[in-house]
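[Meeting: bench + compute handoff]

Bench side (C.D.) handed over the final construct sequence. Compute side (W.E.) agreed to return the predicted structure before the next meeting so the bench team could plan truncations. Sequence as handed over:
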Amino acid sequence: MSGLTRYVHDDSGPARADALTATALPYPDGWFCLAFSDELPPGGVLTRTLMGEEVVLYRTRGGVLRAVRPYCPHLGAHLGAGGAVEGENIVCPFHRFAFDPSGTCVATGYGLQPPKAALTRYDVCEVNSCVYVWRHALGEPPTWEVPALHGPRPSVFRHTTVDLAGHPQMIVENAFDFGHLTQLHGLSGLTIDADPVIGEPTCTIPVTAGGRALVPSASYELTVIGLSTLAAVARLGPLGDMYVLLHATPTAPGRLHLRLGATVALEKVPFVPDVLGRLITDPLSQLFSRLAHHITLRDAAPDFPVWNHQIYVEHPKLAPGDGPVGRYRRWARQFYSAPAGGDVAAAPPRT
């Protein structure tokens, strides 16, 4: 991270975008990644920020994943500040009130009948070895699902989180801003077939490129998932696949956490029996995953100072070669139910 901090903590240059102007875009609706799966083992508790509010993530000893409002309904203690998972319950650190996976209070520290109280739960899912939480400005329930990009076997991602000024729509827009791929990232021989379908929450883009690329492959598929995730998948034939994920999670007006992860999932070694091959593929997968993560950071780093100081231009003066930026922005409108002109905190879920 030491080589990345200069992009996001340099106070001697231009001011961050969020320091001078308010964002022109509200918080979008949808699924947002708050953690990679390996950050939340059974019994683990995490506190993450989403749209100006904290969310407590926890996993029961039996593996049940939950996301809740952090404050105990008893007397307001923060479950992420000393709260612990005991069996299938999360226990408040203040009076040891215990809440089961449904959010219901089932016990107190006094051993007496618990009150009729419950935690406020958020919709949460775990897909592609990532933990997503649903937020909607009007408190509406999920209307679409995060697509699975690989099989049921979990993949361990090497990952990094960077704090930046910016808005998720502007990050995801990079997938359709073809001009910056050649000028900023030095790609050549670029062939992209991108035509987002209005009304569809995801979009898969076949990409062929030479030079420096997000993944070191001549061709790959880039999947856009709402206004939160860019996922690059490079097929390695019978050997396996490589996955690169970039998550833009809004934390405050004009600010976000950028989570970058990479993994190489090797499935088999040619001409080697599967049992013996697993002894080879597992350590090789870990080695190549570290390499893929390094390459991901290297190739994404030129975008960091741009995003950190970039403002949203509502009516851009587009030129030939820019790519379908206008169509992307029309596609992006489906993810807003809050009024334009500023960030609006998402409403609490109906549960």
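W.E. noted at the follow-up: The two ends are 39 Å apart (CA to CA). C.D. will use this when planning the next construct.
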